[in-house]
Amino acid sequence: AGAGARLRLVPGTTQPPASTSTSTSTSSPDEPSTGTLAARMRARAVGAVVGSLTADAAATGVHWVYDLSLMSSLGQEARARSHAGAPPSPSAAAPSAAPPGSSQQVAAAVAAALEAPPLEFTDPPRSPFYAYACGRNSPYGEQTLVLLRSLAARGGLDCIHYAHAFATYFGEGFDGYRDVSTKGFLRNFGKGQPPPLTGAPDAQANAIARAAPLAA
After folding, report:
1. 114 falls in which pLDDT band (50, 70, 90)?
2. In angstroms, rounded to a whole number, what is the distance separating the alpha carbons of residues 50 and 52?
3. At a CB cut-off of 8 Å and minimum separation 6, what does 107 contact?
4. How far apart are CA 87 and CA 90, in angstroms?
5. Residue 170 contacts residue 186 (beta carbons within 8 Å)
6. CB 37, CB 9: distance < 8 Å
7. Other beta carbons within 10 Å of 171
8. Among the four residues 60, 62, 120, 167, which has the most C-beta atoms within 10 Å?
9. Does this model's pTM top 0.85?
């Protein structure tokens, strides 16, 4: 019965579906109530959205950094800042002689990164495509925030409202980076095309990055 109740829950509800049965529940006393399950689902939804946006801001400093040697160097710099005066380990200090892009170089970069402090909130940011201040969301995060605000304003996904909100935020006066899909959307929106024709056929990951608010 507990599993069935969980499947039927809708986020935001606190009451279970009406039942036609008058039999006494056989649920275990330790089994969470429907209200408790709903509260847990809401907490998980909030955690998914906040976690997604926080992780995005934390990663902005190294967003779109594809140079593994640079990533390794950034890790060594972070280690030097956090362990001033302490000698780096040989594996972290020695440059990799493996061919660029080879599995050996990837393994060496991963090993060096694991030994170095995490690179969240790298300051100054090192993205080669845009110069955002440390702590600002990446373009992916900014797109997610626009979707989140539209969902909150309309109580769900309203493609027309979302398209207008997206065009307003990323249109004239925007001081950040417009990626390929954003530019394509603005062109299509400017031609008066309605959703979904406003979309751009781009294969980047920003659509996936916006999944948390939709799922929540």
Report:
1. low
2. 5
3. none
4. 9
5. yes
6. yes
7. 14
8. 60
9. no
